[in-house]
Amino acid sequence: MFSIHDEKKIISLLEENGHKKFRYAQIENAIYKNLITDFSTIETLPKDIRDILTENCFYNSLTLHSEKTDPEGQTTKFLFKTSDNKMIEAVIMRHLSGRNTLCVSSQAGCPMACSFCATGKLGLIRNLESHEIIDQIMWAVHHLAIEDKKLRNIVYMGMGEPLLNYIEVSDSIHIACNQKKLDLSNRRITVSTCGIAPRIIDFARDFPQVSLAISLHAPNDEARKKIMPVENTYPIDVLMDAINEYVRITNKRVFYEYIMINGVTDRLEYATQLGELLKGKLAHVNFIPYNPGEGTDSNGYLPTTKIIIKKFQNTLDQYGIPSTIRHTMGDDIDAACGQLALKEEWISLAEEQGRSIKK
Ligand code: SAH
């Protein structure tokens, strides 16, 4: 069995069975435009092709483990199980402006081990396949369609480090942006990385229109090393060289995420250092108050107060660097991406091992 999103395999399946290639366009239309989920009901196809699809392909490999919508109805967080029982999550964010964004996972777990991040505590479980990323997207597309809404933006800010699963992430972007498939605009897709420098340059060449977000989180090597092990491989000057090259190739503004952790990343001299680091660059900084999450804060971190975040923002203003502070509930859940999965992953691990764990 293989995924209905695997175009190459479906075309060869059609050919092996003596069918013309144009049949693929009908399948594509049914799946991505008419949102048909049951292959046996694709009326544009002859019965034998419908049967072949039913015998050989699956529609969505993910099963829904749980779904949670906040009281305002702005965000819906899905926890999925992959076919081999790995937990991954995706979050729909309904912005007041009317646009709807989906935050997707690119890996189950994550190898980067950032000290503040719940997903990092799991380590890498495995890379997701491109269809598993598309499966998250299709799930959201259907969910929003019931509300008469459309998916407009995708951010690769869920579990995992997308640039360490480059090929599968690339394939998923191609499927999402293909006009005959999901037809999303490249410009409305954002890939976030903790700073895999060489891949940033590949990304610039391969996807010059897709947006890039950098999880910077600290303005100097010493401070960054304490919270992000990636700093040992790609220190800030190497990272900034790659980003400069990205901007040279794409001429696009880069989004920098900066986590505000009390006493760790929010020392006032860091605001000036951040200003010095980014001055004159095509940059936008997004301050994210540290999200302590669900029982995962063994590191003792606390979020920075609003007043200090505001001070950071004022300093950046003086350097002419635009910035925003993430504060809405939906965005909080976005920042907390991975935390629910961590808890569930631990519970199921414990259950497998015959231990019990408090839910
Ligand atoms: N690995 C990629 C994609 C993850 S994006 C990356 O690092 O960019 C998820 C964003 O949420 C990252 O900026 C991450 O650093 C941030 N984040 C993780 N844990 C957080 C927490 N507890 N509070 C606030 N932000 C957090």
What would you note in describing this structure?
Strands 3-4-5-6-9-10-11-12-13-14 form a ten-stranded mixed beta sheet, sandwiched between helices. It has a two-stranded parallel sheet with strand order 1-2. The chain folds into two domains: about 1-60, DNA polymerase, domain 1, CATH 1.10.150; about 65-359, Aldolase class I (TIM Barrel, Alpha-Beta Barrel). About 40% of the residues lie in helices and about 20% in strands. The protein has about 350 residues and is α/β, with parallel strands linked by helices. S-adenosyl-L-homocysteine binds near residues 290 and 293. S-adenosyl-L-homocysteine binds near residues 193, 194, 291 and 335.
Summed up, the helix count is: 13
List the domain count as a whole number.
2
CATH class of the largest domain: Alpha Beta
- The CATH superfamily of the largest domain turns out to be Aldolase class I
Strand content: 15-25%
Number of strands: 14
The rounded Rg comes to 21 Å
Under the CATH scheme, the architecture of the largest domain is Alpha-Beta Barrel
Order of helices and strands: EHHHEEEEEEEHEHEHEHHHEHEHEHH
Strand order of the largest sheet: 3-4-5-6-9-10-11-12-13-14
Euclidean distance between termini CA atoms = 35 Å
- Low-pLDDT runs of 5+ residues are none
Question: Pairing-aware structural class of the strands and helices?
Answer: alpha/beta
The name of the CATH topology of the largest domain is TIM Barrel
Q: Which bin fits the share of residues in helices?
A: 25-40%
